[in-house]
């Protein structure tokens, strides 16, 4: 299985520190919150499209 993306790890940290909810992340990325949960659990990796969106979201969250 592939190693989790660095951006996904960072996004998970934002979630764990209560800066963002799974629902908020899902809405920002246009996916279901269960999809976000599966990503965080390592069950399904994000698609390349969602990897780009995750990277963009992490960059935006860093500037908040």
Write up what this structure looks like.
The chain has helices at 6-16, 22-29, 33-41, 48-62. The chain has a single domain (6-62), classed as 434 Repressor (Amino-terminal Domain). The chain is built from four helices and no strands. The protein is mainly α and 64 residues long. The mean pLDDT is 86. 67% of the residues lie in helices and 0% in strands.
Named CATH topology: 434 Repressor (Amino-terminal Domain)
Helix content: 55-70%
Mean pLDDT: 86
Most strands sheet: none
Features:
64 residues; 434 Repressor (Amino-terminal Domain); mainly alpha
Task: Give a quick precis of the structure.
The chain has helices at residues 6-16, 22-29, 33-41, 48-62. With 64 residues, it is an all-alpha fold.
Q: What layout of secondary structure does this protein have?
A:
Elements: H1 6-16, H2 22-29, H3 33-41, H4 48-62
């Amino acid at each position: 299985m592939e190693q989790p993306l660095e951006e996904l790890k960072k996004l998970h940290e934002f979630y764990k520190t209560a800066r963002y909810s799974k629902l908020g992340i899902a809405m920002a990325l246009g996916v279901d919150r269960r999809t976000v949960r599966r990503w965080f659990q390592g069950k399904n990796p994000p698609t390349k499209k969602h990897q780009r969106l995750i990277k963009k979201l992490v960059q935006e969250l860093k500037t908040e």
